[in-house]
Amino acid sequence: MEPLEAPRQPTPENYTMMQAFEWYVPADQQHWNRLYEAVAGLKATGIDNLWIPPGCKGSSQQGNGYDIYDLYDIGEFDQKGGLSTKWGTKEDLVRLVRRAGDVGIGIYWDAVLNQKAGADRTEQCCVIEVDPNDRTKAITDPYSIDGWLGFDFPARRGKYSIMTYHWYHFSGTDYNNANGKTAIYRILGDGKDWSKFVDKEKGNYDYLMFADLDYTHPEVEADVKAWSEWLHSQVPIKGIRFDAIKHYSEEFLQSLVAYMDAKIGPGWFLVGEFWEDSLDAMTTYIRNMQHKFSLFDAPLVYNFSSISNTENADLTKVFDGTLVSVEPVNAVTLVMNHDTQPYQALAADIQPFFKPLAYCLILLRAEGYPCVFYGDVYGIEGDHPLPPSCDGRVPDLCLVRKLYAYGEQHDYFDFPQCIGWTRLGTWDRPFGLACVMSNAGPNAKWMYVGQEHEGEVWTDLLGWAEGQVTINSDGWGRFTCAGVSVAVWVNQSAEGRDQFGKL
User: Fold this and answer.
1) Can you give the pTM of this predicted structure?
2) Residue 3 — very low, low, confident or very high, per pLDDT cuts 50/70/90?
């Protein structure tokens, strides 16, 4: 008797994340409501998780939340200008998260744990000034300053946490209220120093901005761990994006993750902003975090920027030195974020013609967890507004990923100005795709899509390449793209093609 074949397992649907804000979103306290209205449509395009902006109260209602004041105020208490954060009230936030859950979208919280801002009062403490370019070097003798280091949270009155913060809970600050001098001040005290478990840029990169938290102090560690448990009780999130992780203790973060696993349960998606062009530093961090952590692929963003600004650049090298090339499971791939968008501190200029190519490179390949940017989907506001990128086709590219980017991948990175790849499909997601792109003139590639597609007629979903391709008996087709463009070819009869151009 022939043994029975094991039943075939269904192919999991591809996941896509979206950063659900850009730096210049209006400070109208309505962003949670905007997202509430958007989540159903986003889910239809293939967005599965939203990285929302920092939801804790900042130093003002205009701040994006990286100027964090109170971890335990997510738009509930009348402090720093009102009840709302820049994004809205706690009630609005909870309503958004519930709606997202109803349509099948998870929420990733943006946790700002490196610093505090907007102190309620000054406190005196003893400091030394350090060299801004080498924070291990003192440039003064110890002396006393009047620093903005007292956090009482008077409007909250101890609700959720009775912890108040004082000078001894911080390792550094940047302003002496006594004389108005701005410098980098390392706070002195028994056993106090910069953390040893941070990036070594500038000698020691513990200090970034505002009042720098000291995670060697047991009260700070306990309060932030308790906050993680409290946050989950208030807002049912699926994951966390940790801001500025190369600036605070890696040892503490390992302890925090273990605490969350024990108290709330495992299964979190955790990603860190470790903005670094050193691949060795990034892979070391992932190993130290036992591969429980993902990182944003900063080297990939810089490759996109460099290639898009170099005439006749070599597209075959687009993944050289990137995180996704060596840690494909732990790499979050992206084209732009709120720090690299135009006119921001880490701005990485990517020419408009290259944006569709870049999005295909992160969305339609097997490696990496792609994150699309709010500003590329909806446009960028502020003093230098920009329209949605890719002629408004980013949602369509997300939908291509959801419907067709499955199965074995064949790469054709064999010509500097024209590259391509195919996805052959799977038994239950059978359609597959062929992607070809050029950063020079019109071009074409013969590419294999599988003999099971023999006789099918494929067309470019984006409509940027003309004509049809009939797959031959060996499973090959000649796929074209226009000059300085990209084409995504799919069977013209593939299920779901009627959804494109409507989102």
Assistant:
1) 0.96
2) low
